[in-house]
Amino acid sequence: MSDPNQPRPPDPTQPGQTPPQPQYGQQQPQYGQPQPGQPQYGAPQYPPQPGYPQPGYPPPGGPYYAPPPPPAYPYASWWSRVGAYLLDRIVVPLPGYLLAALGAVIAFKDARSVTTGYSGDYYYETETELTNVNGLGIAIMVAGILLALAILVWNMVFRQGGTGQSLGKKWLGISVVREADGRPLGAGMAFVRWLLLWILGDLCFLNFLWPLWDPRHRCWHDMLVSSVVVKGAVTAAP
């Protein structure tokens, strides 16, 4: 039994208490050995219990995991979009159309349609042939079609992809941009958007009417490439 009159040793776990010093002849604790009251290195760690969030992390489904709302842009009106579309499709490639029309006049101004009939005992057939076609006029007409196509590709893919504005959009003060950051689409995505415009516009005219009730004034081809048409000019892509 211990002597009740003898003073008790200090408790190292209590504040203000210091651990006992080793007496003469005792070995000092080596570096890395656990001190009294400290967990031993390598001791098994128990995972947090279900229903309790891990300290330092917000609970799943909280405000930190909510997707950010889309930016608010000054969206272009439906009438300005229609006007820019007509300008880009008819007015901008007009030099090519005029050259193709001139070639068609030269090619077919002296042409004649000749119909030849063939008859037998039990049948009668006719064959129509176009004669006196000018070959130079055909070449001019093909050159005009290629010129119009080249103007369309330059205007809708490279110019609009790099600056956000085709010539028609520039004349009416609107731009097409990426919805995520408001920058131009780039040539590759501008080509995809232009191709979808032709396909969806030919398949269903409702594609052109969709901006009338869409809150962001988008057509279907805008939704597929995540683009919006806004008022004003934008910063060109680097």
Can you characterise this structure?
The strands form two sheets. The protein has a two-stranded antiparallel sheet. It has a two-stranded antiparallel ribbon with strand order 3-4. Helix 2 packs antiparallel against helix 3 and helix 3 (135-163) packs across helix 5. The protein has 238 residues and is α+β, with helices and mostly antiparallel strands. The mean pLDDT is 78. It is elongated, with a radius of gyration of 40 Å. Strand 1 and strand 2 (124-131) form a beta hairpin. The chain has seven helices and four strands; from the N terminus they run H-H-E-E-H-H-E-H-H-H-E. It is a multi-pass membrane protein.
What are the salient characteristics of this protein?
7 helices, Pra-immunoreactive, two-stranded antiparallel sheet, RDD, 4 strands, alpha+beta, elongated
